[in-house]
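Lecture 7 notes: from sequence to structure.

We start with a single chain of 341 residues. Read the sequence below before looking at the structure.
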Amino acid sequence: MTDSSAPTTLPEVAFYYPNPYWLDTDWAKNLILFFDGIGMLIPNYMEHHSDLDDMAVIAGLKEHGLFHVIEPETAVDEDATKTLANSLVDIITSDRLDHLRKDAGTYFHTLSLSRLGYFGDPELAEFVFQELKERGLAEDSEDGLSIPMHPTVRSLILVLLAQILRPQGRKRGLDLSPATDRSELVGALTEMLSAPTGPTASDVVSFDMANVGVDLGSVDIAEILAFRKEHYSDHRKYSLSVRQFARDLSLMPKDERVKAFEARQEELDDLASKLRKLARGAWNKPASFAISLSGAAWTYATGDPIGGAIAAGGSMLGLVGGESVEVGAYSYLFNAHTKYA
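Now the structure, written as tokens:
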């Protein structure tokens, strides 16, 4: 992956995070218009669906080959565990999580052992767990399958995994693109990228949410898939353009960025306007579904822990002379107006 932000020829799958299941299937109905599928990181002891989900949506996606389950028992392998641990230990041993120790009474959320890397490198995963436990940020497992931990730490791990596991998609013939419906997680990614060990804050590009469609929550999945078949290329062009735009801007010198942004923003506005027109014509609803992206591309140098995490599986990244390579991190954010207003 010479450029981990630019579009590829592989099918692009929205890699949903942070949870094994999305919180609202209405969100998934819109998401599928923009991607070649939806991928989810689901431990194998869980069912590959949730009783809370609309099973008709899952069934419809599966019928068309648009639903992909990635099991952390194999995906979070030894290399992925090492890069996750390297990034986590750097953060844990700094003072960035110290304030969480004061959150007395915080309800801990469970994280599967597999997503912390116990199947990839159990000794290293145990070391990370003990570091968290020592600081009161994790507790002993109660079921032998998962670890209770502070929700902020859990989210941090899952934000990192969304980036680290992207090369695993290539092994499956997929281009995994992190996507979430929780704006605070995109903010966490931006904060990490702006840290001294990553690209500079001025290199991180964030797009405001732009309404590009209607909320399809009340529409039957069969109708949505028929609409997708007819208008898929228009929706894909928009999401790929946003992704490419973020990469290009983050690599530009700061003094060139303003003019380039104005020129490209007009292009994106035109594409968004077309999508809104298509959606209103088909569903007779006001535009209320939005898409945005935050991310950066930069030259990864040895010793950069965030770049190292993102460049997991470096043999696929076209490393030049073993010294540097262009890498990138990004996340799409999708939301229906009723969810984020």
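The chain has two domains: 12-71+161-340, 75-153. Keep this in mind for problem set 3.
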